[in-house]
């Protein structure tokens, strides 16, 4: 039985994928096909290349200060991420730039969005590094990536949980990971008059941006509006949540894993320990279903 794993988008919540992959492996589930969108493409690339343990060790050690160092302000602004630093990180902890998707025994695919045509692009051959990089080019954070004569951006915009790619590559059973499932439920219970604290990495970054682009921020009745990055990421999450529901209704996976990580903000990459633990926990909760669908004995 060919098993496919669809790793969804979700920014910093994507570290939950590490806990999910570790837990599945512990119970003898090794997917034949790994497809990812955005952060899912990154973690999936680390997994098929044998670097998941190395990536986990690094993200667990990530601090707020180290997170801030990945951002920069530049006069010719194409995105807020320091791409040179990110490139070094990916090459060291995720996958070597020289490796190709065809080099691995497990099938791998990443989904990206064609910026000009608006269609989804399936990256199933060639550089696995470029495939993951293209899939995670979040608008406003990263510049678009030139790949095969097309400008590509984040794949989560069109296919946040790429079940369809797993099916197309021959998966008979698909386990999908939806990182945004409880976001809207959480937002319904949030107060409309929450006093936002001025501490934390998001606001530190926002303060830096505000020094260069003060017109972005306005004061209304003495309340500080959400930070620029926070607003961009939340807006994208809302879109992805709606797209995910529509896509999965039309092409449902056999198992959906939905870690409860809505408390983790999109850019809080330093909260890896919490995300990984929640990923592990959601596998434990669905273990009986996973075993039943795959025909595994206890």
Radius of gyration: 19 Å
Structural class: alpha/beta
Uncertain spans:
188-202, 208-222
- Strand proportion: 5-15%
- The count of helical stretches stands at 12
How many strands? Answer: 8
Multimer state: single chain
> Which percent bin holds the helix content?
40-55%
What shape does the CA trace take? globular
Write a structural description.
The structure is a single chain. The chain is α/β, with parallel strands linked by helices. Helices cover 42% and strands 13% of the residues. Strands 1, 2, 3, 4, 5, 6, 7 and 8 form an eight-stranded mixed beta sheet that branches. A hairpin with a 2-residue loop joins strand 5 and strand 6. Residues 188-202 and 208-222 have low confidence and may be disordered.
Brief summary of the model shown:
The protein is an alpha/beta fold. The protein contains twelve helices and eight strands.
Explain the layout of strands and helices.
Layout (H helix, E strand, L loop, with lengths): L2 E5 L8 H11 L6 E5 L1 H10 L3 H10 L2 H5 L14 H11 L13 E8 L5 E4 L4 H8 L9 E3 L2 E5 L8 H6 L4 E5 L5 H6 L12 H12 L15 H23 L4 E3 L14 H14 L1 H8 L4
Parallel strand pairs: 1-2, 1-7, 2-3, 7-8
Antiparallel strand pairs: 3-4, 3-6, 5-6
Write out key terms for the chains shown.
298 residues, alpha/beta, eight-stranded mixed beta sheet, 12 helices, 8 strands, 42% helix, 13% strand
